[in-house]
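Much of what follows relies on a compact textual record of a protein's fold. A complete example follows; check for yourself that the lines match position by position.
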Amino acid sequence: MLRTAVWRSPIRGFPTDGMTVVIGAPFEALRLAVTHDLVDHNGHMGIRSYTRLFDRATGPFYSALGLSRESLAADGTTIFALQDTSWYIREVLLDDPLLITAQLVDHDHNKIVSFLTMIQERQNYVAASFELIEILMDSETRRPRRFPEAVACRLAAVRAAHDSLGRPSLSGRGIGIRR
């Protein structure tokens, strides 16, 4: 279902100043078919391939959050993973069509928690889920940094849209932001 997160930059002259941001809830991060290089000796997608695909899916999602590699580099920052958790629910086979969706489930001044779901589209089942907590870091000092104000506002808008989905039932099992 497509929901709208309205976001206007609080920083005058910011490239998207005055723009309304529309983001899917959940966000459709990656769509592909299982290829030979993803299949292991058991004839199904191997565990390392799930991780690779979930990692690939974070790129488009983070770009939509205002955290693309280019924008991070321009700001002298990067993202470090703190923890991830995977759930392998049902196998997927060669040529199976997959959709990976992403949901922002939490954030604070320098961390984000994302929940990704892999759906086998032919039979419409959840094949796997992946939760990830990451932190914004200064590229030079290698110390945590706060999200820029514009990104923090965008995260809040996306979170509001994604909160309407409810928190995934597997989310938070061993991962989260300490408060």
